[in-house]
Amino acid sequence: MHQTDILNLIPQRPPFVMVDALLDANDSGARTIFTITGNNVMVQNGLFTEAGLMENIAQTAAAKAGYQAMSQNKAVEPGYIAAVKNLEIFALPKVGDQLITEIKIENHIFDVTVITGTVHCNDALMATCEMKIFISK
């Protein structure tokens, strides 16, 4: 699976879109791809910021949820980052770099999903965290 019409899967809109395509998704997680451009709102001094990496992880989770919703003929619902835990930033990618982001579902209780997320660039780990995401009904 390779879903390139990402705007159908996520509630975010330009200029705040931090994923280009959903590479794959299943019940336990998802992977996205994203190429950093110079005009991205999360780029400072040619580098994709820490906040951009966190948002990229969150939007990967949103793309998974959107894909699931669409496959069940349901509306794509907005989600919000409720908490971030154990965030580690190992390096900041630069303009032109391509990110592969993977999320794994750790737990799902009512309207809250707990995920772990990792961001890789050129096979190097850029960032990792645990995130709680609240889905607004």
From TrEMBL:
Mind telling me what this protein is named?
Hotdog family 3-hydroxylacyl-ACP dehydratase
What species is given as this protein's source? Mucilaginibacter gracilis
Xref: SUPFAM superfamilies: Thioesterase/thiol ester dehydrase-isomerase
Q: Which Pfam families match?
A: ApeP-like (PF22817)
